[in-house]
């Protein structure tokens, strides 16, 4: 099993992840632009999109979290001021959102999309690096190889039907054993660096500006020596096939 899919590297060496062009559901507005690195059983996908131009979407067909890597993306939804995303900025698009997407020049962004039965929070929800952090659970002692970290999070979007949660998280340094990942998780690292260990002894080192996806059940370890902050998406169970 592949431990982690690197969606983007800010610096050399470039990602060796394989991407395939494809739509996420039959009404995918980004179908012609989407490159998928990982897709679960009819429920969740992660990858990258390169886009220029304009799109009008009457009703967004799924939940999607995006983080801009290069360029700028403007998202317009009724009743909201235009949301302009520059590099290292992100947002969650709720299912059912009426949306206009604009990019004046070629814009690259990474994504994590999930199917769901229906919207629980439509509209646009920005992800913020300067989040309203609150203390969150640390790790159990039996998986740690050192002191317990102090963790904080700011969960800004939750869809119970898809078991989909997105927000910002940070933590003091810690070292964790290799264990099966308990959920599907997308990460965009905002600060710090992490060494992700695999059972074969290999180590994947990533830092600020890098994005990855770890599938549920993938055996992976974590070691950080400084504060790490990230945008995240988690999905704790597989969602049913409810794409339109």
TrEMBL record:
It comes from the Bacteria. Residues 165-232 form the (S)-ureidoglycine aminohydrolase cupin domain. Signal peptide: none annotated. InterPro entries: RmlC-like_jellyroll, RmlC_Cupin_sf, UGlyAH_Cupin_dom. Gene3D superfamilies: Jelly Rolls. This is Cupin. It comes from Caballeronia arvi.
